[in-house]
Amino acid sequence: MLKEFREFILRGNVVDMAVGIVIGAAFGAVVKSFVDDVLMPPVGLLLGQVDFSNLFVVLKEGAAAGPYASLAEAKRAGAVTLSYGLFVNSIISLLIIGFSVFVFARSVIRLKRKQEEAPAPPATKRCLHCFMDIPVNAARCPYCTSELKV
User: Fold this and answer.
1) Relative to the CA of 101, which of 9, 32, 129, 143 has its CA 20 to 30 Å away?
2) What is the pTM (predicted TM-score) of this model?
3) How far is CA 22 from CA 25, 26, 72, 140, in A?
């Protein structure tokens, strides 16, 4: 059973999948940082100094009564919150990651199509003396025995 498991793990597609998952997790962290730290602050400024990560609704007061200035303050007080701002950030991250994966997949599909559509090099050429089809690498025509330039 251990031998079968090792064979399963060492298959190319399992290793490729593991590498893809690790790279995907790293890409997700980069996109999350991009959304939280680069994209949302200017959007928040345009919308009137709104920090999306601090948009929340208090469902139940915590030990210290509200109002709470930030989501972190509400969490520290033990309040139950509906953090819809974080959800908006997650949706934006999902859209960016989805679009990036779409562009990558589209590029790979186009490359595969070009490789499939590339015509195979001709296997024959025409003898200039007798006009018969002969192999491309032929140095002498098998029909008229003329010497050919290779």
Assistant:
1) 9
2) 0.57
3) 5, 6, 30, 57
